[in-house]
Amino acid sequence: MAYSDETRNMYENTLQGIKDAGLFKMERYINSPQSAEILVEFPEGSPLKKVINICANNYLGLSSHPEVIKAAHEGLDSRGYGMSSVRFICGTQDIHKELEARITEFLGTEDTILFPSCMDANAGVFEAILTKDDVMISDRLVHASLIDGMRLCSAVQDTYKHNDMAHLEEKLKLHADKRQKLVICDGVFSMDGDTAKLDEMVALCDKYHAMILVDESHSSGFIGKTGRGTHEKYGVMGKIDIITTTFGKGLGGASGGCVSGRKELVEMCRQKARPYLFSNTIAPVVVAGVLKVMDLIMHNPERRNKLETNTAFWRKGLTEAGFVLKDGDTPIVPVMLFNAKLAQDFSRDLYNEGVYAIGFFFPVVPQSQARIRTQVSAGHEMHHLEEALAAFIKVGKKYNILGKTKQEIIEMYGM
Amino acid sequence: MESNMKDIILNYVIAEYLEDDSETLTYDSPLISGGIVDSFSMVSLKRFLENRYSISIPDDEATPEAFDSVNKICVLVEKFTSK
Question: What is the pTM assigned to this prediction?
């Protein structure tokens, strides 16, 4: 038997090592639609508990919006369940092209190509447009999917310190001899909630003749005055060569993603990107849902404005309560606890108080940077945020961390 | 001369890769296996060495093992400067 006892033991020991290191991830089962309030079974077998969810990527509160659900039903009825094909064989419907055009209009780019996910978009884009004669220069805190995509590409890889423009400029000079230079960053960084300085980056890219790619997964739909993204916030719409983004967060929360940008680069993806060529088309039901999301947000910033108001309330409340936060103005608000066990204990106590928020620690974030990552939604009503804030304060008092500095928290609980 | 090379490389690694000023590095600190320099960022170090010492390090010699400490990097650089 190929899967021998020895083989099984090897994997069991590896899994035990993950558990012993306190890094074993457990799923919590949700028995309701994604929303500001959810019904959760945790631990497994426990009675369902209604909790306030403050850790979803449901930024615009559209994951279970009745109009999106209705549009998805209609898409299911009119275009079927699946396409049983990749795009270029027999998997492209009229609505796929319609969605590509709507995304192009929304992001202010030249063209767009859909992918099954943004993970797939990031996995495919680099190999499609770069060769070993080129260089990719990425921020050191970019999302894992960008890192994986770069690993699949033969171009030289280099990094610059997080949001450090002087360091980026050094790297652009260092690689001046390369055929093409591509600078890579997240628009909003998913763990810290800060934004890339796209105005300065575009200026540097102009100066050194580099292209720029921005992953807008945690920005599309709500960053910038009309929610176009980080490029709108920094006044550089039309100047980003490649945007990758997802429909799995603010834009409906189901699945799917895209590469949007210069039309030749998008066409290169259509010809060469392997996740596009070798993975199924996005299901019609999802496309229909995202089209409705576009209808809801294209000319109506109401939900984006509500999210901004909610975010300001949440950040102010946590700051005044005396928590240490990561600076920023996005709906990603990391509450810094520094110690991994404290983050886990804090999360458990919040859950007992009716608030669902997860602790993040190494290797998801750097050592000694453990935190509870909170994410605000336009689906939150003020009473949700007030209740969640009260729970945070209660648990914060229990651990005596309110008003304490980073150094004081580390002295109490360790790194 | 040798200690000078060690210090030059050590200072480069500190400036290039350390985010926190309170961290300390020695000539033997594990750079790659210790998570200080990731595989993506090795290229800067390689290009720095090539430019600084006017050498060319073939890709198959620029391994994570050969770059894993300042002392090991010095051995690698001396191998090519002595050629």
Answer: 0.93
All structural domains of chain A? 33-63+301-413 (3.90.1150.10), 66-298 (3.40.640.10)
CATH number at residue B63: 1.10.1200.10
- Please determine, for residue B58, whether its predicted confidence score (pLDDT) is greater than 70: yes
> In angstroms, what separates the C-alpha of B39 from chain A's closest C-alpha?
9
Q: Which residues of B touch A174 (CB under 8 A)?
A: 44, 47
For the stretch A92-129, pLDDT in tens is 999 999 999 999 999 999 999 999 999 999 999 999 99
Which residue in A219, A278, A276 sits closest to A250, CA to CA? A219
Known catalytic residue at A190: yes
Q: Which domain holds residue B22?
A: 2-81
Number of domains chain B is built from: 1
Question: Using the beta-carbon criterion (under 8 Å), do A174 and B41 form an inter-chain contact?
Answer: no
SS (H, E, C) chain A: CCCCHHHHHHHHHHHHHHHHCCCCCCCCEECCCCCCEEEEECCCCCCCEEEEECCCCCCCCCCCCHHHHHHHHHHHHHHCCCCCCCHHHHHCCHHHHHHHHHHHHHHCCCEEEEECCHHHHHHHHHHHHCCCCCEEEEECCCCHHHHHHHHCCCCEEEEECCCCHHHHHHHHHHCCCCCCEEEEEECECCCCCCECCHHHHHHHHHHCCCEEEEECCCCCCCCCCCCCCHHHHCCCCCCCCEEEEECCCCCCCCCCEEEEECHHHHHHHHHHCHHHHCCCCCCHHHHHHHHHHHHHHHCCCHHHHHHHHHHHHHHHHHHHHCCCECCCCCCEEEEEEECHHHHHHHHHHHHHCCEECCEECCCCCCCCCEEEEEECCCCCCHHHHHHHHHHHHHHHHHCCCCCCCHHHHHHHHCC
